[in-house]
What we know:
Elements: H1 3-21, H2 25-36, H3 42-47, E1 63-66, E2 73-76, H4 81-94, H5 109-118, H6 127-137, E3 161-164, E4 170-174, E5 177-181, H7 188-194, H8 199-205, E6 219-221, E7 233-235, H9 242-249, H10 253-259, E8 273-275
Antiparallel strand pairs: 1-2, 3-4, 4-5, 5-6, 7-8
Amino acid sequence: MSRKEYVEKYKDDAIKEMLMHRVPASITLGQGMLESGNGNSALAYYANNHFGVKCHKDWKGPTYIMDDDAHDECFRKYPSVLDSYSDHSQFLVTRTRYAALFELKITDYKGWAKGLKEAGYATDPRYAEKLIEIIEQNNLQQYDKVDELPNLKPKSDNSTTVAVTKNTRKVMQFNRIPYIIVKEGDSFFKIATDCNMDLWQIYRYNDLDKNDKLVAGQKIYLHPKKRKAKEEYHVVVKGENMKAISQMHGIKLKMLYRRNLLQAGQEPKAGDKLYLRKMKRA
Length: 282
């Protein structure tokens, strides 16, 4: 593949990973191109590994052995390239040494490139410079400004109803996020099928898990929720919890906790004021 072909083939996946995990799409694409030789390396060809991720002690999946910094090193082997992209995001999110990167703006690809090198992602002393060069030569930074999933763009930011699926589900929009309303007899599988989505997307975008129950009239988002709500704050009423407030305002649950200096699992009391756009002062 050429660089242009690589970008065309994988840019949507990089954008999806950015919206789910906040790893800039430019960084994901740039690293994929740099580490895999535009998808043409032996590791990419035989193991679908586009990021040079080694096995490490927590890896339980298939492996691919090849020489790298040392002889016969162990690399992760994936069923598909998409699995490689997803694992790359998880790898960065779950390693504490990369935590500082997620404090940077999503558009700060230079800060990300330098931070990856400083955190020890690669041994090449020019790794950051090479990554920045690839990003700028291929204008990958444009994808960091995308705030909607590529496969379901709303028709208009000004209308309430933005689309109708092939199964006559009305797709509406709130806080620039497409959503549908749960109908009587709905299941997660039926919603995913009707909206041409994967089950994991329905769960992830709505901070739900397989044990949660659907209720008629419930709002189900089809894109990831935002980091900020439209409103400045929310005053909690009796019976409300953090998950319900997150859905009500279209704000990511983890951001709602973070903005209000709460730990995951903590619940507010009736009358509490929750901040939706800025951090609560300690």
